[in-house]
Amino acid sequence: MTEPTSDWRDIPKVELHLHLEGAAPPAFIRGLAAEKGMDLSAIFRPDGGYRYEGFEHFLQVYEAACQVLTGPEEFRRLTLAVLEESASQGVVYTEAFLSPEFCGGGDVGAWREYLAAIQDAAMQAERDFGITLRGCATIIRHLGPDKGRDTARCAVETAGDFLTGFGLAGAEMMGRPGDYAWSFDAAREAGLRLTAHAGEWGGPDMVADTIRDLKVERIGHGINAIRDLALVDDIAEKGIVLEVCPGSNVFLGAVPSWKDHPLPKLMARGVKCTVSTDDPPFFHTTMSNEYDMLEQVFDFGESEFRHLAETGLAGAFCDEATRERVRKRLA
Ligand code: HPA
Ligand code: ZN
Question: Which domains does the chain have, with CATH numbers?
Fold first, then answer.
């Protein structure tokens, strides 16, 4: 296959599934490690990229990289670096998964300071790069339901114009979605909008349980729903939005290859699908690379890309004034 050429860099894009720490450019993490005298050489390859094999190891390397993010100032710098890169890919609106566990260990007071720094960087990026960010506080599933409740308390205390979403990420096969129902109920009552990773590694049962027990409006990935067409139809009928990350799925082996990716089938069956990068430097991708690959493999073009952006904006966890403001950027 020929190398992607970034033809689609300038078309306006909406990205709903991006892990803030996972979007950290390796050079940014290496630079912070050097500043702090920390040795993180084990997680980098000689060419400077992140070094890991498979999903479990990815999560470990991810957490090792996060060790250099020691305070609000580091997250302010990270947010600016990530948004500058996203804006350069044509992204005009993005939502990022934020982890109160990585931002003060689940302590509400500490989290407030981290979140303020992230929001401050978001305002600067909006002025400087023309990109809008909203935050989604996210449970790290493999840390268990008790830590999940700490995350929910942090989210509930800071829900507002900027922190608009609540999510569930991490090792999908640990426990069941219902273990997190208390946290999702609390977040919903605080007015937060809900999404959860499911059906990246788990089967249709994991997607169905997530919808039933956590009452989410969106699903992170959700691609394995394709194995149960009655479930696909239910997702379509309920209007649940899938945050599909094809490059991530191919790189981590959740699907065998690009041509096997179920995105076009899900769209054809009426499911609201969006496209995101997940953890772009870890998966050697960017938003324009995703678009280029979708063009090469599935013959997507301008009308599909405009549809994806509109679906993304309609499913975005922002207030209506923000949605209208961003809509003008998609024209
Ligand atoms: N999947 C699940 N959990 C994660 C990811 C991911 O891609 N990145 C960070 N946490
Ligand atoms: Zn993800």
Answer: 11-322 (3.20.20.140)
